[in-house]
């Protein structure tokens, strides 16, 4: 199954990117494994906890945990060549974002939740892993002030939900939504598209 | 229903205050929406997750999410006049604290949980949204070192639970508990009442 | 029951250590109580939320909350003598780590989850409280870059699971696993054993 293979690639990519973030803070190997696993599996876990969708994917499939922890450790071994791969990783991360979004939408669709929640479920699946990584690294989440990322997930999710609501064929809608999300994300990276920022300098208190 | 209307006012107020906190950190519009929604709905969500009380309120009523995200965005538009409204917001936030507390107590009462948990459920509902906001903004939670806030929630919750245990009429007890909490909070703001601080300077390690 | 008594000692110790961390950041008394309770009970709570194991222990036994909050407050009163007790606390914390690990493994074993998850459940129970403490104190989790701690929990959990899988007698396996974990942790403290660190200085972006 292509989606399953893509999913494994996506969690490996997320874990490896997080491992580099851990390395920038000189974490030890245990920290690298944990940060990698939390980042790769945290979005889906948060979605499942918020929706009450048990068991969590990595509890049902412990191999996911071993894969993400292994990928994070492997990153330490090949750290020297990671810098040269950063464009590959940006593209793979964008594919992961589109894929996680659709997976998250599907979970909420299976639970027959309202469309707003379906889109939010996709966004949480795609984005929360990175938020957890940043909180654990003691940063303000990059998601809250970076290039289009959550918005890409919302757009892809809305296209997916809209297409299904219009009773278009499922596979076509899914591929179109993922492609649109991927394209939008890559264009945002390429041209540095940003959401406008809100700058407020007066103190409320 | 007055309580329902007050609830909507309270989540709008929480979302708008959080939007200003986002603006102080120059977050983008997506970050503003997310921080606003997490702050306004995070306390109730944390309560529901800890108590296993599904579905979460915003999953059952997606309009809440749209309202908090919309309120956060609206704050950007009226940022210029927000400073002049800060006293209004302090009062509305205090009302929200009292209201969230009672709502949280009611959830635990409906689940027939012990009184200690009922009071804690009220406090979590009233206070955790702000803790999540501060964690995501990379601050030490204000709750842990500011004017009476969590204590107000505990007092209001204890009055509510105590009144119900004494078999006093429900509506009267609720109004009395909320009023006491509101008064205590406003007095704490007005006179700068603080909990004593614990200052420990020797290093354990 | 010896285990029950040890459990109470362990949550008291965790709450008191966290209270000192709160005092180092000049939190107020409410913050001290909260940080103490979250640290002492947060690992088990996170495990239960991730595994969908309801009700959480402190919801079923509210006395745990009162004990941890009380222990945190008590720490303020005896802060002056805490520095002299720091070696006692290191040992008690190590016992707590071993105990929490076994308790967490047992929860997952009762739910008939796979062995990998049983070990992870033990590690989450033993370690996540400290991670939450550090996040709320706005630090990078010590767990991610300190002496052997999570690894001790993994080793103890693996010994426990392995022993049970080999159909050795339960009580003996439990005592052996906890003793091994305790010894490893104490040796790590005594000789400053660390996991190797991953230091990555090139920026990905």
Give a verbal description of the structure.
The structure is a homotrimer of 205-residue chains. With 205 residues, chain A is mostly helical. Chain A has one domain (2-191). Helix content of chain A is 75%, strand content 0%. Chain A is built from nine helices and no strands. Chain A has helices at 2-24, 29-51, 57-60, 63-77, 79-82, 86-110, 115-136, 150-165, 170-191. In chain A, helix 1 (2-24) packs across helix 4 (63-77), helix 6 crosses helix 8 and helix 6 packs antiparallel against helix 9. Chain A is globular and about 50 Å long. At the A-C interface, helix 1, helix 2 and helix 4 of A face helix 2 and helix 7 of C.
Itemize the secondary structure elements and their pairings:
The structure is a homotrimer of 205-residue chains.
Chain A: H1 2-24, H2 29-51, H3 57-60, H4 63-77, H5 79-82, H6 86-110, H7 115-136, H8 150-165, H9 170-191
Helix pairs in contact in A: 1-2, 1-4, 1-6, 2-4, 2-7, 6-7, 6-8, 6-9, 7-8, 8-9
Descriptors:
homotrimer, 205 residues, mainly alpha, 9 helices
Number of domains of chain A: 1
- Secondary structure tally: strands of chain A: 0
- Please give the largest β-sheet of chain A: none
Average pLDDT, all residues of chain A: 92
Number of helices of chain A: 9
Oligomer: homotrimer
User: How much helical structure, as a percent, in the residues of chain A?
Assistant: over 70%
What is the CA–CA distance across the termini of chain A?
56 Å
Please tell me what the overall shape of chain A is.
globular
pLDDT < 50 stretches of chain A? none
Largest interface: A-C, 35 and 35 residues
Series of secondary-structure elements of chain A, N-terminal to C-terminal: HHHHHHHHH
Radius of gyration of chain A: 17 Å
